[in-house]
Amino acid sequence: MPTSRWVGPHAPPAISALGLRKSYGDRTVLDGIDLRIPAGSVFALLGPNGAGKTTTVRILSTLITADGGQAQVAGHDLTASPGGVRAAIGVTGQFSAVDGLITGEENMLLMADLHHLPRREGRRTAAGLLERFGLAEVAKKPAAGYSGGMRRRLDIAMTLVGNPRIIFLDEPTTGLDPRSRHTMWGIIRELVADGVTVFLTTQYLEEADQLADRIAVLDQGRIAAEGTAEELKRLVPGGHVRLRFLDPAAYHRAASALPGAGRDDDSLALRVPGDGTQRELRSLLDRLDTAGVEADELTVHTPDLDDVFLALTGGTDQPGETHR
Ligand SMILES: Nc1ncnc2c1ncn2[C@@H]1O[C@H](COP(=O)(O)OP(=O)(O)OP(=O)(O)O)[C@@H](O)[C@H]1O
Ligand SMILES: [Mg+2]
């Protein structure tokens, strides 16, 4: 099928939802969720533990039903045509679907059987994916011996056996080391380049920043904000210049010259709120010059998604403080 019909602003959305609701007992988990995810894009759902990310994924992938609202996935209505939805999607859950007692290859072939692929085609698909995901060498070993990163790659490879056009990845990189995380990001980018729509949940703001075309922040059962990473960053304050000193005397002189600055007496650092423009920096440096002090380290901090997350999910009274 020509991909051009299925991507771009005029294409029908891959996933759309209106007023999705879900409660467990008297606990409302989703309190009216609206989504519109264009085909061929990456959408990231962010939210603190228990916000309802996995619940959203489970509803959209027909594993559970919503109490209210409606949604279409790949043009199929969730309630009217769950089979149509299932045929179009792949789901990699938050917890691994890999069977450790059998080999990576056997896990893949099991998926091929589930998708009713003819034997030869199943073997070819499995071999191709194992190769592509760097698992060919371990394919004949029991998956129980795989590292976390290998297991996660196998998980996603299994999801791709049916060649889904929409995939849900629930926290695809949680627990992975930075190198494995980057490998996973590369895999996700390749999928998108092939025109696949990716719905991912993550705890890692940097991951959403790196991968997602649009990001939604889920909090208290509602979408607290939605937009591109840049749009979200503009929602919160948090820009500042950080000055660090080695000499306590210099630190104190600078602190008196910059009365508006936040102080960190332990690390001899000052935090001067601002947007980091050239004009502002020049005035800051002028004031330091006048006071006769020189900072040992100067860093300009623009708000990042951590700031957005903390501000929107009610976590802090100090948006902008990040730890890198
Ligand atoms: N089957 C269930 N029965 C009762 N409560 C549930 C059930 N499934 C989820 N919940 C509750 O719904 C809320 C949202 O859970 P969910 O797993 O969707 O959160 P999450 O955003 O994926 O969290 P995490 O970041 O920890 O994965 C939680 O309070 C959870 O305890
Ligand atoms: Mg979850």
Automatic annotation (TrEMBL):
Keyword Membrane annotated: yes
Keywords: Antibiotic resistance, ATP-binding, Cell membrane, Membrane, Nucleotide-binding, Translocase, Transport
Membrane topology, from the record: Peripheral membrane protein
Name listed for the protein in its UniProt record: ATP-binding cassette domain-containing protein
A Pfam family assignment: ABC_tran
InterPro entries named among the record's database cross-references: AAA+_ATPase, ABC_transporter-like_ATP-bd, ABC_transporter-like_CS, ABC_transporter_ATP-binding, DrrA, P-loop_NTPase
PROSITE patterns (UniProt xref): ABC_TRANSPORTER_1, ABC_TRANSPORTER_2
Family: Belongs to the ABC transporter superfamily. Drug exporter-1 (DrugE1) (TC 3.A.1.105) family.
Localization per Swiss-Prot or TrEMBL: Cell membrane
Main location: membrane
Superkingdom of origin organism: Bacteria
